[in-house]
Design brief:
Elements: E1 5-10, E2 14-16, E3 21-23, E4 26-31, E5 36-38, E6 41-52, E7 64-74, E8 88-99, E9 106-110, E10 114-117, E11 121-123, E12 126-131, E13 134-137, E14 143-144, E15 147-152, E16 157-159, E17 163-173, E18 186-195
Parallel strand pairs: 1-4, 2-5, 3-6, 4-6, 6-7, 7-8, 8-9, 8-10, 8-11, 9-12, 10-13, 11-14, 12-15, 13-16, 14-17, 15-17, 17-18
């Protein structure tokens, strides 16, 4: 672990062994020509930034990322895996994820009480976020993909940034899909909204 900033820049892929934990105040891992496959947990109270040319995730990525702010970028690959069988697990108050190349997807699970999309996030194919708690976004933090699927199993959904997906947008929550701050525009061919215990709109 590192007391302050832990920063690794690698020309190739970066991996870690199971059972280890990487601790730092701020943590940054970048692979300029490979991917990231981490089995060790990452803990950084301020921020975790992961950037790679190839996929960040997959079956060998069993790490949980715990931080106030998690930022994920893959320039040509996926985040999680392309089929959604192995979601990348985070516990983050603020989150952004970008895998914008054609055919590439974002599959993330957030285990925290709430998470806010705090920067533009995109997928070339599916952008899928499964969260235990409330999901929101800040003004100007837009989400895009061919398909968008966002689910809160115990909370609600409240977006200030716009959501756009030519194929479909599916929003599902236990609580309401609305609040005084829900100023998002949803743009898609098909929009599906489900609240099991709350309202849609107000």
């Amino acid at each position: 672990g590192a007391g302050a900033t832990f920063n690794v820049l690698s020309d190739g892929s970066i991996s870690s062994v199971a059972g280890a934990t990487l601790n730092a105040t701020d943590l940054s891992l970048t692979s300029t020509n490979g991917g990231l496959a981490l089995a060790a947990n990452l803990n950084a109270p301020n921020s975790i930034t992961l950037s790679a040319r190839d996929t960040i995730g997959g079956a060998s990525f069993t790490s949980t990322l715990t931080s106030n702010t998690v930022s994920l970028t893959s320039t040509t690959g996926a985040i999680g895996d392309i089929a959604g069988n192995n979601r990348l697990v985070v516990s983050a108050t603020n989150l952004s994820a970008n895998a914008g190349s054609a055919g590439q997807s974002v599959f993330i699970q957030n285990t925290g009480a709430s998470t806010s999309i705090n920067a533009d996030s995109a997928a070339g194919a599916t952008f899928s976020l499964l969260s235990n708690g409330t999901v929101s976004s800040t003004l100007g933090s837009d989400i895009s993909g061919a398909d968008i699927a966002i689910t809160s199993t115990t909370g609600g959904l409240s977006f200030a940034g716009n959501l756009s997906a030519p194929n479909s947008i599916s929003l599902s929550a236990n609580n309401s899909i609305v609040s005084g701050n829900f100023s998002s525009a949803l743009t898609s061919t098909a929009i599906n909204l489900t609240s099991t215990a709350g309202s849609i709109g107000d």
